[in-house]
Amino acid sequence: MAYSSPEIMEKVKKILAQEFELEPAQLSPEANLYVDLGLDSLDSVDLVVALEKEFQFKINRERDEEKIRAIRTLNDIVGFIEAKQAEVLG
Amino acid sequence: MAQRVYVTGMGVVSPFGLGLARLMQGLDAGASAVVNMKPAWESSLKDLQCWVGAPVPEGAMDPKRIPRTFRRSMGLTAQMAYFAAGEALEQSGLGETERASGRCGVAFGSTTGSVHSLANFFERYYKDVSLRDLQSGSFFQVMSHTSAANLAHAYGLRGRVFSTDSACSSASQAIGLSFEAIAEGRQDIMLAGGSDELHPLVSGSFDLVMASSMRFNDTPHLTPRPFDRRRDGTVCGAGAGCLLLEGEGSMRRRKAQPLAEVLGFDTVADGANLAQPNRESITRCLRQALDAARISPGQVGYVNAHATGTEQGDAAEAAGIAEVLGAKVPVSGFKGAIGHTTGASGAVELAAALATMHRRSLLPTHNLEEPAPECAGIRHAQRGEAPLSDILVKNSFAFGGINSVLVLRSTTHGL
Questions:
Q1: Does pTM top 0.90 for this prediction?
Q2: I need a labelling partner for A57 at 20 to 30 A (CA). Which of A28, B26, B193, B214 fits?
């Protein structure tokens, strides 16, 4: 099943809060993961693992590398998941 | 020698809990931290013979006190090292600027990287020969220099970083080599120590070489029994110990309080056996460490023994001490109460031994009721007995045939 954008955003916020111990108040859709939330390259690896687990699909690190690198904000993650959902559902 | 070297901070995590005060409380009470681990272990390793261990009590450490960006790369062993080092740093009053000066380093060792993390790593790997889904911190938790590297990162140290992974000599070698680095003027300050986890695979490894206690599974508080007639092997424990070593110049500039002076150190290869320390290599190491310290055997006031509770190890150590130091100097060890904290033991036990030197009231060897004839040639310290002088000798002997001896002077009576 495909999640709606607000559903995806809620799940992304939950992952960020749990995985990186961030305060819910910090998690605005425009917050920059690296500048505003202080994540780094190791965190981005763990974020991918957590997204795979939550949304039950595999992210191909080679094929998706550029898209993952382009992610900056929570909105970008939601966009990435939506595209991935569309791809999985054909 | 460019400068004299002092201990200006000490910290431990032990089977009695967090901090040196807790450790001393347990030792002074004559308590045992050894418990039966069968309920926790049997699903991980079915055929252990030694079912007892000395874990750090649950809840003693709150890992959440470590900032997440440091914690993610730490397994249990590095977390314990973090708390032990934190206590030592706090006692020494060392600030951020001095830590980042490039003249402050760290030497820390353990038998391996985090055993719990290693077990998780290989559990994942063997499922379908893949490392997929493992978190990015996994590697940093299992690498052999995990404690040293994580401490440097977490405490902002910029000087030398090295790891002395020599099993039960890890902490003593870290302290000894740090002492030499400072004495030679290459560093001003070093965090030095060791840490190791308790895991059924660790106890299983001691089982494998028949070095573990197996006759006291139902009466865990009665084992290990260093130097005792009924000793039947050692018991593994968990912990971390850290000493902050500092050159005289830095210590005086900072007006820091010395707890002890490190006088000498040596470490030698046994040369004969990987598993059993022999008397010859022990006496050689003791003599060389005393020579390095310019201390004669008659000046030694107390020996904190390695004394694991194994049949041959204790006998060889007692014979070695008797040969070099004679039968007058009081000797005791702490493993009877806290088990063998392996890579941490050299620092955990040294910190506790220094505490007893400061108050000039020694502790006996826990569970030593009737000295075995082969261990009777030394003076076994009695509770409350005073050391003969301020000079302390600390022994550590490791699997792999690696002996280490440290010689220190307690600064109870000033510099």
A1: yes
A2: A28
